[in-house]
Amino acid sequence: MKTFFKILMSLILLFLLIFVGGIFYLSRGLNEVMSISLNGIDISKLDDGKYTGEYDHGRWTNKLDITVKNKILTEILIKDVVTFSKPSVSD
């Protein structure tokens, strides 16, 4: 019976280690991506039209189509939806 509990506890510990490691892997670099600012872009100098943008940092990649009309950012379309997208952000 002791052997069974040792094996069971070992499997539970292994599962926990894999789970915690997966969480750390999936969230790696997320804080850097969330804190990006667009200070270098002056929209008032852009002509009306559609622009394509791309961001690639580690495992985080985004591609967007942006529409500027009357010097105002009017539309942002996400071209490549991430696997874990949030409808409130991508709709």
Automatic annotation (TrEMBL):
<keyword id="KW-0812">Transmembrane</keyword>
<feature type="transmembrane region" description="Helical">
    <location>
        <begin position="7"/>
        <end position="26"/>
    </location>
</feature>
<keyword id="KW-0472">Membrane</keyword>
<protein>
    <submittedName>
        <fullName>Uncharacterized protein</fullName>
    </submittedName>
</protein>
<keyword id="KW-1133">Transmembrane helix</keyword>
